[in-house]
Amino acid sequence: MREIVEKNLILVSGIILLVLTTQENYIVIASLIGIIETESAIVLQYLFDDKRVDYGWMILCLCISFLWWPLLFFMPVISFSLAQKEKWLFIPILLLPFAAEYAIDSPFFDRKWPVCTLGILMVLAMLLAYENLKATAYRRQFLNQIDSSVALENKLQQRNAELLASQDDSVRLATLQERNRIAREIHDNVGHMLSRTILQTGALLTIYKEEPLHGQLQSVNDSMNEAMNNIRESVHDLHNDSLDLKRSVEEVLAELRAHYQVDYEYDMGTEIASNVKYCFLAIAKEATANIIKHCDGTKVSVVLREHPGFYQMMVADNGTGKIDREHGGIGLHNMEDRVKAIGGTISFSDVNGFKILLSIPKEQEGIK
User: Fold this and answer.
1) What pTM does this model have?
2) What is the percentage of the chain residues whose pLDDT exceeds 70?
3) What kind of architecture, by CATH, is found in domain 245-361?
4) Which of 77, 142, 229, 335 is deepest in the core (most CB within 10 A)?
């Protein structure tokens, strides 16, 4: 839009200079030709956006300028267009129509001030085009800087998110390790002390049969047994919470990475049923053992995913091993038993490699 306005301003300047130079009636025709030249250039540029069309228009206008001297007053439009295209080497060609008019002693050179003013107008048109080019370059540079800053900001936000996720993982790992240590301490120390006390109380019950001592010892023994059961449940829960399924499966798959390309995808929440954790971990161990023994492929894919209604696990390789439909293997039967024990389903396929696919509904009774 700015280029259109500037071209029309240069056109109007040429028409005003033409009117001030001569009062002949043909200035109307010359002005119309100048308007047609300028507006057609604008229309062609936006219709075709082709440099060849622009150069063709400039050559045509230059040739027309040789035919009639009043058309020289519209040369600033051509000089603006050439400068806009950064074709500075072609600028001297614009002097040819002036040289031709001077050679035939054209009335254009009867007075000097129109010639000087037209020359100044051509120089100003080229300077205006040059400033436009600089402004466009600065604008492009500014937009590139904005894009770069936005990209850097997005990258920084991504790095911050990764750092926060890493910190969360570190805190979670430290918490799980502390829970595991507490569970081990309770089991090794408090559990052993309670077990010893229960044995001693049982021995006293055997020795002292008289009441009320026997009843009091029985009450103490029952309390000790209840405390022991509560400690066992607490230690069991702490141990379940301390199991990081993602990291545990990664450790199991580590021994495959030396011989296979392992793709591991984990997409599960933090609140996972303990039975599911141990089931998935056992399946991963059994599947890893089978792959090491039987797989002749190069790639292993493992996916653990949590869906709204069920947990899913998939282990696949690109080997050529086949399932023994008649006898099967102990490992496959063990996997089936584990999954069915908590209400899940499992299937095996040997099409395009060996594949294990299992799913465990979340609402199955016994999952906790």
Assistant:
1) 0.42
2) 68
3) 2-Layer Sandwich (3.30)
4) 77
